[in-house]
Amino acid sequence: MADERPSSWTASDVPDVAGRVAVITGANTGIGFETARILAQRGARVVLACRSVERGRQAAERIADSPAGAPEVVELDLGSLASVSRAAEQLRDSHPRIDLLINNAGVMDVPYGTTEDGFERHLATNHLGHFALTGLLLPQLVNVPSSRVVVVGSLVHTRGRIDFDDLAFTQDYKPSRGYARSKLANLLFAFELHRRLAAAGAETAALAAHPGVSATALDRYEPMWVRLVTGLLKPVVFQSAAMGALPTLRAATDPAAAGGAYYGPDGRKGFKGHPVLVAAADAAHDPQVAQRLWEESERLTGVSFLG
Q: Is 179 a catalytic residue?
């Protein structure tokens, strides 16, 4: 349920997380980097799971003076199930305990294409890769008190539609539709994961967040004219990546945040502002669609958990 009260929750409200291990995908830039930076400042042992190890190391150097030292960098290409498996194995070997898994990375409005596993790129990177990573790392989380999985969604999930007859999106593809569908899949996964974790009596909670309209590099696949217009509008319409990270940080660290919660900015239409509880579209809470998507995700990735 949406919480329409004004909020002043900021990065200074993130509690001490010293000793906690936080794995963040896509953490070398944008919202992921800001999330990593604040968690590191509050004492977390941060792992930047990035497609580019070099860019991950550059990001780690920028926050190397944190209390827990420089973040660890793990190579992770969410568009490759082989890469997801390797990253999960490396993380399991080095971290028998994980407190926070923040599924942040994503691509937006990319031209049609398929990954090495044959999946449409939005669905592969934004949903299936995170589904597989979560399943492979869940044993490191489920017995850890107050552990959390946070899935980062988007306002555009309201325009998404899951077509189980064409998950490869070979018909009528448009980049914006592919992105919206993948972000609806993110929320369906987050809320279904919450239901299954609660039914299993696990220590772990699953939550979701969205950053509103934030100035990040996600628009790099847009046509040049779109990026030029966006650049002109950013000072007025967009908020900073640091502000966009606040809903994720609140979902990950607020002691009062409960499993199944969804956080986003409190401003008009959810574009900007401080993080509060917000409402997802009814389609994101459809248990039958969520269950079928879960089963299809298990089949496509070969990763089964919480069955």
A: yes
Give the largest CA-CA distance in the chain: 51
Three-class SS state of 76: coil
Contact by Cβ (8 Å): 161, 169: no
Q: How confident is the model over 258-307, as pLDDT tens digits? A: 999 999 999 888 889 999 999 999 999 999 999 999 999 999 999 999 98
- How many Å apart are CA 236 and CA 239, to the nearest integer? 8
* Cα gap 251→247, rounded to integer Å: 6
Q: Which residue is it, tokens 């830039």? A: 29
Catalytic position from the list 112, 173, 179, 262: 179
pTM: 0.92
Could you give the 3-state DSSP secondary structure of residue 290?
Answer: helix
Other Cβ atoms less than 10 A from the Cβ of 187: the count is 25
Task: Look up residue 307 and give its two tokens.
Answer: 């069955």
